[in-house]
Write a structure and sequence with these properties.
Elements (H helix, E strand, L loop, with lengths): L3 E7 L5 H13 L3 E7 L7 H9 L14 H6 L2 E4 L2 H6 L9 E4 L12 H25 L2
Parallel strand pairs: 1-2, 1-3, 3-4
Helix pairs in contact: 1-5, 2-5
Length: 140
Amino acid sequence: MEKKLVYFLCTGNSCRSQMADGFLKALGSDQYKVQSAGLEAHGLNPRAVQIMNEAGIDISGHTSDVIDPEILKEADYIITLCGHANDHCPVVHNDKAERWHWGFDDPAKATGTEEEIMSQFREVRDSIKNRIERFVKEGR
């Protein structure tokens, strides 16, 4: 059976889409090919790398990429993780793709002490993990 291609999109491909990418690769790589990208490439957020390591997933080798129209055309699932990406995602000429929006707060915008900021990163990470687990369990 051919694996379905999931394309996670975010504004900067630095936090949320990277976490979703890491979790789906870890939990569903037998069923899915996974890619992620952003409207812009902001670079991999070091806090996202740190909190994913805490969850046992190494995303330090990931790159922050801009949306590739060829991958968009091939995707079976196009999933936006922030409202900005959902509103500004390029027009997709792909009739087979299911397009979903899973909105999560941007942990990179968190303020406060380092501990409070990291707490927000962990909260978003855990929410994304729960959503990915449901996606894999439901087979979509």
